[in-house]
Amino acid sequence: MTQVSTPAEAATRITGRAVVEQRRLKGAVTEVVLDSGDTVIVKRGHARNATAAEAAGLRWLGAADAVRVPEVRGDDDEWLVTELVGDGRPTHHAAERLGRGLAALHAAGAPAFGAAPPGGPADAWIGLAPMRNAAGEDWPRWYAEHRVLPYVRSAVDDGTLTGGEAEVIERACARLPEVAGPAEPPARLHGDLWNGNVLWGAVEVSLIDPAAHGGHRESDLAMLQLFGCPLLDRVLAAYQEVSPLADGWAERIGAHQLFPLLVHTVLFGRSYAGQAVSAAKSVG
């Protein structure tokens, strides 16, 4: 990885503009004011491929022209520079626009379940956890093999899932082909659509920090519900007006939440293990 010591140096090298002000926000994220008067976000990748995966994901989502995502101003092996997007209070108008936008984003499609964004790495990330993008044709089997079971194995190895809990989740995976609902084409997913990655504005919402890939559209919606989202009923109603969900979608929420709950179990420990097992039991 390129060794750059500060966010200011990275911003100048990538944008060609001098930095006049900077403010650390959280973790590896810094808000930088350039001498052009433009304000950008400078983010340092935490591991190999992290910056490339996020940059490719933002470009792919933005290319759908469906939901707002930060414009990528430049990136390299270590640093990502994007436009600054605002955050404010949720509004009904923005919630409905988000629902319609997500429907259009998902309809933009992907080459396959597990497809990485164009130019993005196969070995990508969801937050601080590794996420392998490997293509598959059948969603239930792909989801089990590449989005659930790898994290079950990791959690068992780390001692954050017991063998008995792992068996419950494995049985749920075996049931997925029967309960997954009608087959649908691969959707273009944000992939990490929890409320913390939803920045509200009066007119529209901006989505940040994607783990973009081809997947099932219900997965994005299930993740929105996982940790709570303001005005979610408005978001879902607007989505359904544009692209109605298949019958029984509400009963499948637990199946789609297995992946993020297991990621949280791997990253943050046993406090999420019980939720993952409960989600598995809901599969039927």
UniProtKB/TrEMBL annotation:
Keywords, comma-separated and alphabetical: Kinase, Transferase
Signal peptide: none
InterPro entries referenced in this protein's UniProt entry, alphabetically: Fructo-/Ketosamine-3-kinase, Kinase-like_dom_sf
GO molecular function: kinase activity
Family: Belongs to the fructosamine kinase family.
Record's protein name: Fructosamine kinase
